[in-house]
Amino acid sequence: MIKSKKSKLIPREYDEVILKTDELVGLMDQVDETHFLPDYGVETPEQEKKTMAMAPISIDEEKVVYRPKDSQ
Question: Contact 41/28 with Cβ under 8 angstroms?
Answer without folding.
Answer: no
